[in-house]
Design brief:
Layout lengths: L8 H9 L2 H28 L21 H19 L3 H24 L33 H12 L3 H20 L5 H24 L2
Helix pairs in contact: 2-4, 3-5, 3-6, 4-5, 4-7, 5-6, 5-7
Length: 213
């Protein structure tokens, strides 16, 4: 990772791009994310064919199922738009997000394989025309532990540099987690584990980028 230097926002990208270490890390980060996203449809369609086991979820059993897809969609993509606006002036933020997202995705695929669960009984399919495009032709219900939607919004929050941006994204991530439970897309443990795992992954990716400059 290149060593951050305090400059005017408009000058940060040209200065960062002069660093060979930054260019290498950025290009590798983009390649990793592209390959993972390209593999997503294959992976999710494979895990959808498995048989798992249901969980007894005390909280979920007491929450009536409602379709709140639109609210979830708005919160996720509003936070994503804010990230895109911020990385225009922060090359360091983009680098951190790419590497952390790649590690987050690989970790989540591993936990999905290891923790084989059936979907909640009253699950209502989540309608998100953008995110669903990465899942393949068939709607996926077994990508449970841990929540990808919740963890991704939390990850954006950890990457933000402004305090107000962080708190807005953390509020959005919490709301997304609650709404996913209302729609019975995930179990409670999928949501609760997301910020913890995500922070650990963010911390590890930052450590790696800082150590190998």
């Amino acid at each position: 990772m290149f060593k951050p230097v305090h400059h005017e926002p408009a000058k940060k990208w040209p200065i960062a791009w002069k660093s060979l270490a930054f260019r290498r890390k950025l290009i590798i980060g983009f390649i990793l994310v592209f390959l993972i996203l390209a593999f997503f449809p294959i992976f999710f369609q494979i895990i959808e064919k498995r048989n798992g086991r249901p969980l007894n979820d005390w909280l979920l059993d007491r929450v009536p199922a409602h379709d709140v897809s639109i609210l979830i969609f708005i919160l996720i993509w509003a936070t994503t738009l804010l990230l895109l606006v911020r990385v225009v002036r922060s090359p360091e933020m983009l680098l951190e997000f790419l590497w952390a997202y790649a590690l987050l995705s690989l970790t989540r695929m591993s936990t999905i394989i290891l923790v084989n669960l059936d979907p909640p009984r009253y699950l209502i399919p989540l309608i998100d025309p953008i995110t669903n495009s990465f899942y393949g032709a068939r709607y996926v219900t077994r990508d449970l532990f841990f929540s990808g939607h919740t963890s991704t919004v939390f990850l954006m929050g950890f990457c933000f540099k402004r305090q107000i941006d962080r708190w807005l994204s953390f509020c959005a991530a919490t709301a997304v987690g609650i709404l996913l439970l209302i729609q019975h897309v995930h179990y409670t443990v999928d949501i609760v584990a997301s910020p913890v795992i995500t922070y650990l992954i963010y911390w590890l990716s930052r450590k790696y980028l800082t150590k190998y400059k």
